[in-house]
Amino acid sequence: MLTHLSIHHFTLVEHLELELEQGLTALTGETGAGKSLLLDALGMTLGDKADADKVRSGAERADISATFEVAKLPKARKWLKAQELEAESECILRRTISADGRSRAYINGQSATLSQLRALGELLIDIHSQHAHQSLLKKDHHRALIDHYGGHTSLYQAVKAAWREWQAYAEQLHKRQSNDAEISARVQLLRYQVEELDQLGLEENELEALEAEHRIQANAETVMATSYQLASLCQGEDQSLQDAINKGLQLLRDLPEKSEALLEAEQLLINAQIQVEEAARAIDHHIDSFDADPERLQWLDGRLDAIYQIARKHRISPQQLHELHQNLANELASLDGGEADLDLLAKQSTKAEAQYRQLAQELGQQRRQVALHLSKAINRQLQQLAMGNASVELCISEITPAATGLEEVEILVSTNPGQPHRPLGKVASGGELSRISLAIQVCIANKSTIPTLIFDEVDVGIGGATADIVGRLLRQLGKDGQVLCVTHLAQVASKAHQHLQVRKSVRKGASESTLIALQGEAKVEEIARMLGGVELTEQTRAHAKEMLTMVGS
Length: 553
Prior knowledge:
Elements: E1 2-10, E2 13-19, E3 23-29, H1 37-45, E4 61-69, H2 74-82, E5 90-98, E6 103-107, E7 110-112, H3 114-124, E8 125-128, H4 132-135, H5 139-150, H6 153-178, H7 180-200, H8 206-218, H9 220-235, H10 241-254, H11 260-289, H12 294-313, H13 321-335, H14 338-384, E9 391-402, E10 405-414, E11 422-423, H15 424-427, H16 430-447, E12 452-456, H17 464-478, E13 482-486, H18 490-493, E14 498-507, E15 510-518, H19 520-532, H20 538-551
Parallel strand pairs: 3-13, 3-14, 8-12, 12-13
Antiparallel strand pairs: 1-2, 1-4, 4-5, 5-6, 6-7, 9-10, 10-11, 14-15
């Protein structure tokens, strides 16, 4: 349960430390004092959208933290452990909001996301809004009520997951069937293109080698003539490079004395002699090994022409042909055997549909059973809320398959004996809707495993003896857990185990709201104010004391 709430620089609150207890806690105050302030602050710690306007004027940031006792909450402890945020017995949710609208979230001192705050909050607090009766007019909300009351969350999620899987396979199958003709034509084209490239058999880097060899064969005569000239120049019978270098070396060796420059020149000539000899050997090797082959040249012409033609056909450079061949072959492999893939997709889609329908039918059966129990429970509560002549019926009808299942749920009501059950919006008045909503929320709360229940002015539109019954119902809920109720009715507030009053004052030229825990006479005064308005009389005070005495406060 919620044990402590710390609020700093949030809207009208400068600093507030609030200890909360088990049982029913009533939160009251004059209109405009900020009764919903506590719930707004708590909502921030539960992942509500941050708003810079919530930061108190003049402050840099708002800081709110809520402490929960989780020792007896196995689901919350399991979730915390899975998120590596576990604590021993307490869990602290904290939220800071800067004046520029940025916010940060923490769980047990570690940074957390808003989705994590919301997920954990759903295991800690169940909030029943004053506007819940408005959602009763929406059919989707009716189905959610049954699932919440019956504890169908896990099965409902399984149905949604099965639905998504079925739809994914069905969509793939539809696309494949719709595009079957296009795919078949594409496969035929790919087969032709891949076969043509297979026949060409172009290897990686082959083109560069072919072009180099072709250039040599095409210029064979020029190459050979030049090679012979080079050979003769290096070591011919006439004056050759080797002879000239040897003569130069001989002249240097015959000198009786050589300067540093001449010694360097001699070394350079020795190196040149070695290099000329190596060049001559390389030229001789080329002459001996070179084979001017007209047939080879003709083959090279044909091979290169075939490569260039296919490259032009695909409108790419010849260097890209090898990569194109691989890409087309891969695409063909992925599309080939289309009939087998189509058959597999059909089987997968059928299997997914069967799985969905099995889960959805199981959920439907549970919904029908729960609808009967919930209808009876709501009708019992309506009798206590002075609507003994009213009758609620949860009507379940079949619909086409959807992510939510195979059923549509609608709350029908008859407000007078003998009248047929009709949709809420066509029969119930605003006050009746409020009481029906409250009856439903009390039933849901009785089934809830959440330790802290919050009712935000759910008593709108009721009064008198009915309000007294509402207070007793909320007090009964608080016996085994924790109930926080924002209320404007003295009949409800008088039933609280703990009473908090919101007061607004002006301090240093700024408005400020505070929460005061009321005891004794202070509690009597607040109940009297709620009964009689601003001007309190001995009669209203006496009435307030009587109400508190009857409860046993």
